Amino acid sequence: MNKNIINFYIAANNLKNVVRTGWKEVNIPDEKIESVADHIYGCLVLSIAISSEKNLSLDMEKVFKMLIIKELKKVVPMHETSINSSDNIDGKELIVKITNGLIKQDELVNMYDEFELQETEEAKYVLYVSKLESDLQAKIYELNGDFKLENAIEDVKKYPEELSKEILPQVNNASDGWILFDRKYYGNNEMFTQLSKDIQDIENS
Hints:
CATH class: Mainly Alpha
CATH architecture: Orthogonal Bundle
Order of helices and strands: HHHHHHHHHHH
Strand content: under 5%
């Protein structure tokens, strides 16, 4: 039992070494690029703040677990050097391998399926908060001078043509493209839509 705990932690700990590649594509300095583990931490912190201020009818324990479980498919085996070494392995297969031996393995694997299906309120929240955290990070990079407007514009030009034409005229700050792109995920969720707008309205000092 203790061995299973340690093995799971060692595997998940490797997410500290897996960078969020989207930031490389917009030329964020290498030393500033966050890891997947950093992103998970950001989502957990953001969720604590949201649940403090908003009346959420959600199973927050499940939310916290799902925020981590959904990212485990990005674990790179310790003996591999390529960041894309797991690209040819099915995400669920990786979750099964990483949780192997844990008594509650079925619960954790089912949580991964639940997120992928996006049919429960918890799964939708996890997707929304993950997008929102990325947008906050984009704004932070922008405020710190690490996310340049010219790089953001080039990135938006790579979006599907219709989306690029829609978003590009609205890009006045480096983070705008990311924020506007992700806002489409929220649908009719007023809370996340407003949070997204509030992030976009943060001004450079």
